[in-house]
Amino acid sequence: MFLAILASNIRLVSHWSESRGVYDDICYLRQAHLFQRFGWHGLDTSLAHETDGYLAGKLRSIDFPNWNEPTRAPCHTEIADGSKWVMTPPPGTGFVLALFPEGFQVIPLYALANVMIGGFALYGLWRAREAGSLTLAALFGALSITFMINPAKASYSMAPTMVVCALAGLVTARLFVDEGRRRLMMIAAVGILLGLSASFRIANVILSAGYFLFFGLSFLIWRTRETFVAGLTLGLAFLVGLLPVFAANLVNSGHPLVSAYGGQDTAAPHLDPAVLRAYLRDTQFPLMVIACAWTALLWRFANHAGVRQLTLLVGANLALNLAFFATHPVFTPYYIIPILMLSLWTLLFAAVFTRGPVQGFDRAPPGRPRPPEMLSRV
């Protein structure tokens, strides 16, 4: 079933066009063009580098009004001192697009992302050992591969974001299920992945909110060296993951902590009934209900202390992210998909890692004694 959905996705992707009329697509492709043209200097997205007519050509191909006026181009803004115009999106999506030949970038990016998500789904299915976890792995695996077309096609930034969310979910689950000497290494891996996710979409930085809340409260409650080092490791690794964003900010805005988004007018956060109604009617709402219910059920029936702690982290992260987007002034069909996929992948891997026969224990038929060596392992 997974392979059939994956094959169908790749067949659909193979017919996509890179000139579909979506304004943000032009910016991601322009960032990729800058990387291919200038290497790492492509982080500088100033319109002063627009000497080969690439942006104008892309805008003209989608019949954009004023295509020959660079300062009217979408997702470009003038920085605070007025010295140059730069792009607002972070560099990550453009970077991964730049890995493929110009003119044939979107199709291989989505094909590769689909294959990687299919791999995560198959891994979850392979690790499942009981009927319940097997069913969860099958249903969610099919759903996750399906989502790689819709809503992931809505923005090129979603393809790499979905892969990072799956990988972060896997590492997070392993972190809480297998507590051992590799704990700090896994915390660092989670921090780097969460930081890197912001290179694809700035809003992905909110994915880390629940992690920092959990590790911060853990230190405030227990006040041990272990909880302090864990929180410090997460924070430092997160900063390492954010380095591409800091570098792009420094080059384009003149300060690593000042994003090009700062030059745009944004409405103050507020609850908009129209936005809430849009979410209620969208596919994201049932997914949100599933994620919340799954978190509550796993917390209630988990037979592993680490998994109970994990559900607290997932619940906090869901609450903080949903609160952020509920007060966001704009609705899109994919805004809360990253937090939902991160949460659902985490819950799935937690379930399949902790369900099944005890390691080293083979169930003997009723009435048949177990060998001494098996009893010693138990």
From TrEMBL:
UniProt name for this protein: Glycosyltransferase RgtA/B/C/D-like domain-containing protein
Keyword Secreted: no
Residue intervals passing through the bilayer: 107-126, 133-152, 158-177, 184-200, 206-222, 229-251, 285-303, 310-328, 334-353
Source taxon at top rank: Bacteria
Keywords (A to Z) from UniProt: Membrane, Transmembrane, Transmembrane helix
